[in-house]
Design brief:
By secondary structure, the chain is mostly helical. It has one domain. It is built from four helices and no strands. The longest helix is centred in the N-terminal third of the chain and has 14 residues. The radius of gyration is 12 Å and the shape is globular. The relative contact order is 0.14.
Length: about 70
C-alpha cells in the first residue's frame, strides 16, 4: 500500500511510512488494516510508535519492511 501511495504522489515509500507514524503518534485515527497488515504486526507497530524503545532509531520503518 505505501508503495502505491508513494508512486501516486511521486515520493518515497519511507515518506509515507513516516507520515503514517506521525499521524499515529499525534493520535489521529489511521486505518492500518487498509495497509493489509496482520493484527499482531499492527499492534506491534502502534505500540512502538506510541512508546518507542530507547535508542530504537527508525524502528517503525524497519518493522514495515520485514
Amino acid at each position: 500500500m505505501q508503495a502505491d501511495v508513494a508512486t501516486m504522489k511521486g515520493i518515497k515509500p519511507s515518506t509515507v511510512v513516516s507520515h503514517l507514524a506521525d499521524c499515529i503518534r499525534a493520535g489521529f485515527p489511521v486505518d492500518v488494516q487498509r495497509l493489509d497488515v496482520a493484527e499482531d504486526v499492527e499492534k506491534l507497530i502502534v505500540d512502538v510508535i506510541r512508546k518507542p524503545p530507547i535508542n530504537s532509531g527508525n524502528l517503525f520503518s524497519r518493522i514495515l519492511y520485514l
